[in-house]
Structure formats: structure tokens, C-alpha cells
Design a protein that fits this description.
The complex is a heterodimer of chains A (315) and B (441). With 315 residues, chain A is mainly α. In chain A, 72% of the residues lie in helices and 1% in strands. A two-stranded antiparallel sheet of chain A has the order 1-2. In chain A, α4 packs parallel to α8, α4 runs antiparallel to α11 and α13 packs antiparallel against α14. The model of chain A has no long low-confidence stretch (mean pLDDT 89). Chain B is an alpha/beta fold and 441 residues long. Chain B folds into two domains: 185 residues, D-Maltodextrin-Binding Protein, domain 2; 202 residues, Periplasmic binding protein-like II (D-Maltodextrin-Binding Protein, domain 2, 3-Layer(aba) Sandwich). Helices cover 46% and strands 14% of the residues of chain B. Chain B contains 21 helices and 14 strands. In chain B, the strands form four sheets. In chain B, strands 3, 4, 5, 8, 13 and 14 form a six-stranded mixed sheet that branches. In chain B, strands 10-11-9-12 form a four-stranded mixed sheet. In chain B, strands 1-2 form a two-stranded antiparallel sheet. In chain B, α2 links the parallel β3 and β4. In chain B, α10 packs across α12 and α12 packs across α21. Chain B starts with a strand and ends with a helix. The N terminus of chain B is likely disordered. The chains are: A mainly alpha (315), B alpha/beta (441). Chains A and B meet through α1 and α2 of A and α1, α3, α4, α13 and α20 of B.
């Protein structure tokens, strides 16, 4: 009986692998994924389709939307605040992605080799900020950066660097870079952990072979570690890009996009237009939806790049 | 013929299911999940609770009354056993507004809700009821005119002021005395002179928030009334009704603001200071004064030491010249609207009448250290600070400051250039006009 089952199971696996399933098996497959597909279509697919439609209308959130075609997109292209927010979103995503990939990678490699004896402690310390919510992080850092009583300015003053003290979140030049640093502080631990997990999957004999061939530390990193982490790296990069494109919570809590839009990104701008006070008594859901579609396209592009890179790596 | 079996356990034990059973289970499961929304919508009965009771949902972010709502609800339900009140207090307007927008979009507006700056828009769209028609002019006659005006359009009353808000300068008498400042500054020049004395003691003079930028408008907009001596100036500007931000009155007001900034009146980093930070700078004695609204007394009760709560005082905004009007920001940002279409509208109106009944309203406002919106309740305010601030309304010092107009709040952004000293008043005025026009689309 057992042998029969095993043999039946092997035949089935062969059919699955070859893509040739009996009709009942095909139906069963569809039935099993039906709940997921239905829920996905209801809670993800429909809202996206609806947002695309609303982006082509003028709508205040009630009553019937008035179809205006691509007017919202044209307005976005001509709106200096939206254009600046778009560029800022790209810059924020690019800078956070580069930093949130290279620094965690370096930390993971160090913890896996040089700092091995402190591994658990270092991993824990780096990971702790990642378990704190963005809102709590934003509120705490706002206090740390307080221009009058914040720890950062007090520290600078106490070590004779008072000329560096400033209103970190209140000056146009420093608001967004400061938020990038906070985002890095929070995201470093999780990305480091992903890289660290990836490092455990690299065959140690590859390092031994490299050492036998006389490779130094850099060469082992360049020719063993980096290729071994290629898939992990593309995942981390695409996750960071997506998080960068849809940045909202940390910025909203710390500056609400200010001062005077200096830290405004697409996420905070569209929120203000739809739900906040930017549009006063008349919410601009149509215009805000058009911005959300742009963010969606940016995120889709990031995922597409990741899929292409993963496919290449798989070959 | 039975179909082949799939072992349900790794050892291929007796717990096996036929494919047909699995297909049946899967189909039933999918059908059940898919029908959940249908089932839930079938069970919905708007405005009606179980057992023939009528349900009135109340949505606000008014946490000042968080200890009062349970008492109000319980007393009302005891007197009206056929009505159930479902009260929901959201933490902040940021948490509240998306929920309200979703409810409005879905056509399921709570029976009583805080309309925020959208009271008139919702009223015009038939979402909130005309309370003039529903409650009568006698009911409305007790409200301060400023709290009536902001919710009135074409003779229709789309909300009622719940907590009035008036701004003033809270001050610490000890720090003022230590700096040699005697008495309350009568004019802005007096304030600048006082600030220089206070700054010399190592303290900031006035703590103020401009993060977000709209907070800075609370201070700036009353200056328009002072410079123009016209309490309606901002209303016209808000609606771009024959006035723009490049008007000389706006430029002169910005020049006055710049003079205050250059005179060291405010703490460093106004643009990076949030409301709670400005307040804490005051009650931790880092600043001698704090520009804030009439909700500050309750915040100080909750956050400052009892000794500080006992000693702080409040004064009117200084005036432009001696003897001139001390215009300051006043309206009722916290209001209550009633759904026009709910089947429980009558029950909602009954709860509104209960909330504003003299015995309940006075007690609620006094217990929560909040400023009432009615004249009769104002005479019974017990908190001395609030009593003083309420009297300013009777003096005619209150002027509008809430940016109701489409895009009006965008005017707060360019003010950053004044707060940090990087821009000139005329350039800022032009930038304000551009920002508001741009936001209107």
C-alpha cells in the first residue's frame, strides 16, 4: 500500500513538473487558490482599478466623480510642488536604497567574520530599532532633534561643536537628510539580518577553496560573498526602492513634509490633498489618486527590475 | 468508484480524505469567504441596534472629554432607553479624517461627527443636516457668533461649535519677574523689549510652533486684523474675495512678524518645533511665555507639575498701538455636525439637545477645562484662565484664523522664510499667493 502511494505520488510529481495534470487535479488547483485570488482581487485588485479611474476624474470623496481624462496628470506635470515632490521621492528612494543596502551588507559580513564573538549582541542591537514602529521612531527622534532641548544639539554644544547645532527638521537644507539618517537607523537591522541569513547559505568550502588559491579578504568578498548574495541583494534593493517610493509615515510624523515642502515626497503630498488640510474644505481625491498611480508605477518598475535580475541570477 | 486517496498525514495513516471531499470542502470554503461581504451587508441595519433600539454613532477626536463621554452616554441612555450611543474618540485629526472621508465616500456617515474644515462642503452636498431647521433659531441664539458664522452658509447651519478656541500668550510670572519684566506687554514693541530682557537671562521669550506650517498661521492671521483693523479681513482673504496675499495689509503684517522674529521674541528653531514641544519648553521653564490656544490649560493639567499649573497666567495678544484692539485667533475648530440622511437623525438630534443642555454642557466643559461655545456656559466657567480667555470674546477680540478655503492652509508654508529669517516680507507674500493658487488647482 505504502509503495503504491509512493509510486502514485512520484508519478503525480512528474506530471506536475511537466505541467500535464489530469482535469480534476487542475480544477482542484484552481479551487484551492480561489479564496486567495478572490480576496486579492477584492482588497488589492479592485482598489487599484478604482484608483486608476478616480485619477481620471475630479472627485471630492462624495457625489459622482466628474470624468476629466488626463487633466490630473497634466496638472501634476505643471505643478511645481508635485514636480519637486516627485524628484525628492526619487532622490529619497535612491539614497536610502544605496545606504540601506551597502551598510547592512557590510555589517552582516563583519558580524559573520571579524565580529563573530559579538555576533548575537551586535545583531540584537542593530535589529532593535527595526521593531519600533515608524510613528514611535519619528516622535522619539523629533524629541532627540529638538532645536532647544534635544540631545543632538546639547551633545554638539557640550563638545565645543555648537556651530554645528541647528534646527535639524526646521531648515530646508537639513530636513530631508536628517530623515534619511533616521530611516537608515531604523532599517539597517532588518536588512543586516536578511544579508546575515543569506551568508549562512554560502557554502563554506568556497571560502576554503578561495583561501587555498591565495585570495585575500577583499577577493573572497568580491568573488564569493557578492555572487553568493546576488538574489538576496536584489530582494533587499527592490524592497528598499519600494519603501523609498512609498515613503510616508516617518516623514509625516517628523515634518509633515515641511518646512515649506522641503521634505515633501509624493506620499505626504497626496495624503494632504486627500485627507489632510492642504485642500481645505474640498478634498482633491482625483488629483491625489493620480499621484498614487505614479507611486504605484514606480513601485511596479522596482519589482519588475527585481524579477528580471532574479531570473538572470537563476540562469 | 472511489478516487485515489491522498495521505493526510506523513505516515499515510487512517486520516485520509478523498479528492472529491477536498473539492467539496474547497468549494464550500471559497463560497463562504466570497459571501462574507454579502452576508455582512445583508445583516446591516443602519441606525438601528438590536432589540428595536436606535443606534447613534458619534465620531470625534475630542480626547479632552475622554473622561466625560462615558458619563454623558450613560446618563443619556438611562433617560432614553430606546437609544444606544456608540461613541468613538479618535486620537488626533490625522487618525480621524481618513476614517470620516471613507465613511462619507461609502455613504455611511456617523449620525454625529466632527466636520473639521469640511463642514460647509458636507452641508452643501447634503451630507450634514441644517441645524437651523432641525433645532430652531432659539437653540442657536446662545452660541457665540464666531462659532456660528464658521458653520453657516446661505442661512443654513451645518454644525455647532463644541469647544471654542481662543489664543493667547500664557506666561510664567516667575521668569518674567526674574528678567525684570513688570506687567503684561501692552503692545508688540513692549513684547520685543520684554523678550530682550528675558533672552538676557538665558531663557527664550515666547515658545511657538510652526511645525506644521499651519500652526504658524494661528499666530500670523490675527495680525492681519490688527494691521487692517478689520476683523473680517481674513475671511475675505480665505475666500480670495477681492483680496489677495499680495495686498499691502498682508505685507505689512509680515513686516510686523519679521520685526518680532528679529527682535528675539521667539525661541530658536520655530520651524522645527511642534505644538507639544513648544508647550513643553514653556512648562519646563525653558521659555517664559507660550503662544497657545484655549486647550492649553487642559494639556497643562495633564502634563505639567501641579505647582506650575497653579502659577502660570495668560494675557491677550499685544496690540499694534496702545489702546488698540487686541485681536487674537478665535473660532470653534471642534464642532459637531449631524448626518442629514441617517434614519437615526431624530435620535441624534435628541443627543445633541442633551449634550448642550445647560446642566450637561457646563459640567462637561468645566470638568475637561475646555472653552464652551455658548454664552450661557461661558458665564459659568470655573477655570480662571479659561474664564479670562472667554471674556475676550465678549470684548470682541476674537477673529477668524481657520483656513477653510480651498488651498488656504498652503499659505502657512512660505511663512517659514520669515520664521528663519531667510526671506523678505514682500517675497513671502507673493509666495503665499502662488502657493494657495497652486493648491486650488
Amino acid at each position: 500500500m505504502s509503495a503504491q502511494l509512493l509510486s502514485g505520488g512520484a508519478a503525480r510529481r512528474e506530471r506536475v513538473a511537466s505541467g500535464r495534470l489530469h482535469r480534476p487535479e487542475t480544477i482542484a488547483g484552481y479551487v484551492f487558490i480561489l479564496p486567495t485570488v478572490a480576496l486579492f482581487a477584492l482588497f488589492v485588485g479592485y482598489p487599484i482599478v478604482r484608483a486608476v479611474y478616480i485619477s481620471l476624474t475630479s472627485w471630492s470623496g462624495f457625489g459622482d466623480p466628474v470624468f476629466t481624462g488626463l487633466e490630473n496628470y497634466a496638472r501634476m506635470a505643471a505643478d511645481p510642488v508635485a514636480r519637486a515632490a516627485f524628484v525628492r521621492t526619487l532622490v529619497f528612494a535612491a539614497v536610502t536604497t544605496v545606504l540601506q543596502t551597502l551598510l547592512p551588507l557590510g555589517a552582516a559580513v563583519l558580524i559573520n567574520s571579524t565580529w563573530k564573538r559579538f555576533g548575537v549582541v551586535a545583531r540584537t542591537l542593530l535589529f532593535i530599532p527595526g521593531i519600533v514602529s515608524f510613528v514611535v521612531t519619528g516622535v522619539v527622534w523629533r524629541l532627540v532633534l529638538d532645536p532647544n532641548v534635544g540631545v543632538v544639539n546639547r551633545l554638539l554644544d557640550s563638545i565645543g561643536l555648537e556651530t554645528l547645532s541647528r534646527t535639524w527638521l526646521g531648515e530646508a537644507q537639513t530636513a530631508l537628510p536628517t530623515i534619511v539618517v533616521v530611516a537608515l537607523w531604523q532599517g539597517l537591522g532588518l536588512n543586516m539580518l536578511i544579508f546575515f541569513a543569506g551568508l549562512q547559505g554560502i557554502d563554506p568550502t568556497l571560502y576554503e577553496a578561495a583561501e587555498t588559491d591565495g585570495a585575500n579578504a577583499w577577493q573572497k568578498f568580491r568573488y564569493v560573498t557578492v555572487p553568493g548574495l546576488q538574489v538576496i541583494t536584489t530582494i533587499v534593493v527592490s524592497l528598499n526602492l519600494i519603501n523609498g517610493f512609498k515613503a510616508f509615515d516617518l516623514i509625516y510624523v517628523m515634518t509633515q513634509g515641511g518646512p515649506n515642502h522641503a521634505s515633501e515626497v509624493m506620499g505626504t503630498l497626496l495624503y494632504g490633498l486627500a485627507f489632510g488640510s492642504t485642500s481645505g474644505s474640498v478634498p482633491q481625491f482625483g488629483y491625489a489618486s493620480a499621484m498614487s498611480i505614479v507611486v504605484l508605477l514606480l513601485c511596479t518598475a522596482a519589482v519588475t527590475v527585481q524579477l528580471v535580475l532574479n531570473r538572470r541570477a537563476a540562469r | 468508484m472511489p478516487g485515489p486517496t491522498i495521505p493526510a498525514t506523513s505516515d499515510g495513516g487512517s486520516a485520509a480524505l478523498s479528492r472529491r471531499s477536498l473539492l467539496t470542502l474547497g468549494t464550500v470554503g471559497a463560497a463562504t469567504l466570497g459571501s462574507v461581504p454579502l452576508l455582512s451587508s445583508c445583516g446591516s441595519d443602519e441606525g438601528s441596534g438590536g432589540g428595536g433600539k436606535t443606534t447613534v454613532r458619534v465620531w470625534t477626536w475630542y480626547s479632552e472629554q475622554q473622561d466625560e463621554w462615558p458619563r454623558l452616554v450613560s446618563e443619556f441612555e438611562a433617560a432614553n432607553p430606546s437609544i444606544t450611543i456608540e461613541n468613538r474618540v479618535f486620537g488626533t485629526p490625522d487618525q480621524y479624517l481618513p476614517a470620516l472621508a471613507a465613511a462619507v465616500s461609502g455613504g455611511d456617515v456617523p449620525e454625529i461627527f466632527a466636520p473639521h474644515v469640511r463642514a460647509l462642503t458636507y452641508g452643501e452636498a447634503g451630507i450634514s443636516a441644517d441645524l437651523n431647521a432641525e433645532l430652531g433659531t432659539d437653540f442657536l441664539s446662545d452660541f457665540f457668533q464666531s462659532t456660528i458664522d464658521e458653520y453657516t452658509l446661505d442661512g443654513k447651519q451645518y454644525a455647532l461649535g463644541w469647544m471654542a478656541q481662543t489664543f493667547g500668550i500664557f506666561y510664567n510670572p516667575d521668569l518674567m519677574s526674574a528678567a525684570g519684566v513688570d506687567g503684561e506687554p501692552e503692545t508688540w514693541d513692549d513684547l520685543i523689549a520684554a523678550a530682550q530682557r528675558i533672552n538676557a537671562t538665558g531663557k527664550s521669550a515666547v515658545s511657538l510652533s510652526a511645525n506644521p506650517g499651519t500652526s504658524g498661521l494661528d499666530f500670523f492671521l490675527p495680525l492681519l486684523a490688527q494691521v487692517s483693523d478689520d476683523p473680517t479681513f481674513y475671511l475675505r482673504l480665505d475666500q480670495l474675495d477681492g483680496v489677495t496675499y499680495t495686498d499691502p495689509v498682508v505685507v505689512q503684517s509680515l513686516e510686523l512678524l519679521k520685526k518680532l522674529v528679529d527682535g528675539g521674541v521667539f525661541q530658536p528653531g520655530v520651524n522645527g518645533t511642534s505644538g507639544d514641544q513648544a508647550s513643553s519648553l514653556f512648562f519646563t521653564e525653558g521659555a517664559a511665555m507660550n503662544f497657545n490656544g484655549s486647550w492649553a490649560p487642559q494639556n497643562l493639567v495633564q502634563n505639567a507639575t501641579p505647582e506650575f499649573v497653579q502659577k502660570y497666567r495668560v494675557m491677550k495678544n499685544p496690540a499694534l498701538t496702545p489702546g488698540a484692539q487686541h485681536y487674537t485667533a478665535n473660532q470653534a475648530g471642534a464642532g459637531l455636525a449631524v448626518s442629514a440622511t441617517s434614519r437615526a437623525k431624530d435620535a441624534a438630534l435628541e443627543f445633541i439637545r442633551f449634550l448642550y443642555s445647560p446642566e450637561q454642557y457646563v459640567q462637561t466643559m468645566n470638568n475637561s477645562n475646555s472653552m464652551p461655545s455658548t454664552k450661557s456656559a461661558a458665564t459659568e466657567v470655573t477655570n480662571p484662565i479659561l474664564k479670562q480667555m472667554t471674556s475676550w470674546l465678549l470684548d470682541g477680540d476674537g477673529v477668524p484664523h481657520i483656513p477653510f478655503g480651498n488651498g488656504s492652509s498652503e499659505a502657512g508654508g512660505p511663512l517659514a522664510g520669515i520664521w528663519d529669517g531667510s526671506a523678505e516680507p514682500s517675497a513671502v507674500a507673493a509666495e503665499m499667493q502662488t502657493a494657495v493658487t497652486n493648491a486650488r488647482g
